[in-house]
Amino acid sequence: MSNPPSSPFRHGTTVEQELAYYKAQYEQLEVELQEFQQSSRELEAELEKDVEASEKRERKLKERVESLGFEVEEWKTKYKQSKAEANSAQTQLQKEITTMRETNRTLQLKLRDIEVDNDDYERQARNTTSSLEELESKYNVAIERGVIMEEEMRAGEQEREDLRIQTQRLRDELSDLRIEADITREKLRLSESGSRRYRDLTPVRRPSALHARSPTSSRTAASSPTVSTPPPVRSEVSTLSDTPTPPSPPLSDASGNPMSKMLPPPKKNPLVSDSTLTPRATLNVNTLRPARHSRGPSFATATTPSGKRRTTLQSRPSVGSEGEQSHEQQHKLIYKARRQRPATAYAEVHKHKYTR
């Protein structure tokens, strides 16, 4: 289809040109109308489809609105119910909170009282601990004092034992010295009496009596038996009867030549111990042990030419070989103790003496 003329009619145009122009315009408008009708029909169909879809959508939406309305009513009912339940629960919780507050206040008061009591208990515990520590310190001090006192008691007992042993040793020495002094005094008395008799008998002495005796005569006189006499008077041997005296050596003037009796005995130093004397055994200080039977010393008597009777101290032999051996063993132990003088030697002597 040709395009219509751009301008309407001009001067000088013909009718054919105008007719052709209007015809072309008509054809063009008819084509446009057909196109418009077709497009309107298509649009109407589309609009009908849209309307149908909209109606369907509207129906669906109405149904949904109705269902949502039912749901809303249901939710409203549920809300009211839940609100009522919440109100009742809130009321109950408020009551419980009030009760718990009261309980909490009561518990706080109790806790405060318990804390006060706990403080009192802690103070008492501290006081008890301090007193316990003080008692422990005092107990330790008492234990130390007890240990020190025990040590002092042990030392005192040891010292007492040492002093007892030393006292016993000194008593034994004193007893030995007393016996030696008694023997020395007796010898001195006998020598003085012999010297007096010797001076009295000097004018009537024969020349043969001045000569010394031979060893044979001395052995004969020493081996001669002694004469047994009754015990002397108490006044003469009072010092010897207090304690058991040791055996003294036999004197030759008890028998033999009567002229040899008139010779004065040789003077000896009282400080030098006589080798013929037998040392005395250690005395027993235990008063609970009964005293053993001891035989007293025998006295030998001899008559002088002047008619006076002379009494000399003579020892008795021990009975049995066993007694002699034990006596000699005691003498050896006493001699050893007197030389060394330790406490153990005296304990050994006493042990040997008490266990016989």
The 3D shape can be described as rod-shaped
Structural class: mainly alpha
Proportion in helices: 55-70%
Strand content: under 5%
Description:
By secondary structure, the protein is mostly helical. Among the domains are: 245-265 and 297-314, no CATH class; 321-356. Helix content is 67%, strand content 3%. It has 7 helices and 2 strands. Strands 1-2 form a two-stranded antiparallel sheet. A hairpin with a 5-residue loop joins strand 1 (298-303) and strand 2 (309-314). Helix 6 (321-340) runs antiparallel to helix 7. The chain starts with 14 loop residues before the first helix and ends with a helix. 7% of the residues are buried. Mean pLDDT is 70; it is low at 207-212, 214-303 and 305-324. One of its GO terms (cellular component) is microtubule. Residues 212-227, 234-243 have a biased composition (Low complexity). GO terms for molecular function: microtubule binding. Keywords: Coiled coil, Cytoplasm, Cytoskeleton, Microtubule.
